[in-house]
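name: query_chain
kind: protein
chains: 1
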Amino acid sequence: MKIRYLFIFSLLLFLSCTEDRVIPSNDIVIDGTSKLIHYWNFNSLATGTLDAVVADFTLLPSASPTITYEGTGAGYLDAFSPGYDSNAQNGDLAGDGLRARNPSDTRSLLFTIPTVGYQKIVVQFATAKSSSGAAQQNYSYSIDGINYTTEGLNITTHNGDIDPLNAVVSLDFRAIETVNNNPNFKLKIDFSGDTASGATGNNRFDNVTVVGMDAPPANLGYLATNNFTINQAIVPLSPSVTGTVTSYSISPALPAGLQLNTTTGVISGTPTQLSLATNYTVTATNSSGSTTFVVSIAVSAVVDNTLYLIHYWNFNTLPTGTLTSIPADVSLLSTTTNTITYPGSGAGYLDQVSPGTTLNSQNGDLDGLGLRVRNPSDTRSLIISASTLGYKNIIVQFATDRTSSGATIQNYSYTIDGTNYITTGLTTTTFSPNIDPSYDIITLDFSTISSVVNNPNFKIKIDFGGTNASGTSGNNRFDNITFQGNIL
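structure:
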């Protein structure tokens, strides 16, 4: 009898200990220097159907880490409560969790989790299922955002426990180098088993973490060749780099008066000694490694005040028909993309017009062809992409007029980041062109706008207004577009 009671007591004790018990699916040891890159605790989920769930915490906010439920059928995402304590970070409580509803065999739970700047990635989450939820979860990943594989994964399937039991799944990508520093990294969970196709039931997830270590910095870059003038402050040289940098160094020592900021990597100052062109190796370092870039610096006593023709469009070799992208006819920066485009919507387009004009022409060019910007033009913008790498005191000029039914107003703006357009510092921001053949020369003076100096992202935008701009006929015309400046 005592044995019987002892058995019953032991059984009750076991059952009482299984409620909300964490059953690890696999155990791995994460390096103590790893960082929490992305984290979903789901405690602020909205009610109702969820389309995309953004991370509650991320070190890469511009990468927009998200969870979606791609596929067909009636399955959807919503919140469940209570969630789990398992794998919670920062002392978070078991608030809400994420529920992937059946039918789940026609959908995939996708985690978009970029790892830019990080390596040795581990993904962990707590998971369970309802009694009629999909019996099996299948794991795969993508390094290009499109194609999925299981190569190198430590675990590819998991059979979930029934809620409130839950297991912590640990997916170890530390040995998979292609996952490191990857803007396209994604994790996919597919569902299978007889119950995955059911009309009820769900799989449950909580406290999703993506951890990793700093990747070595990469893609360090500066303006490669620099000719400075003695006793004149230089335009600071700022680095571009991928990943986290804890310190910068340079070898050999810079010419007197110039210094490297060991925190930001910016080279600045006023050179006080002459120096022949010398190669300086800049090294960017963090705890995982380093990367280098060679910068050439010369300090000269001669000031070059030559006004260089950096880019020039004379349009005299334009082909017939509709034009989509027009490269510069002359450019001192042959390795950069310097083009004219006409993005937007509607029926407007670019083509050639004859004759052009000799106003603002260079090198004795004739008035061969010009560029015609066709209406409707109020739904498009003329974008002139023109890098100013290595140049300052930028002056832009062009000849323009219009047909009698062409847009009566041209509005000018510029961008220093390639995306956002402003008019700050421009003295000319709008112009009403004459009717063809009465061309005028427009001058846009950027010589006092320091952010335009040495800028690979510089662009000019021309928008069109007035009652004619929305018409189905008429056009504005341009010829002999020049970008000029002094060498740095």
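note: The longest helix spans residues 2-18.
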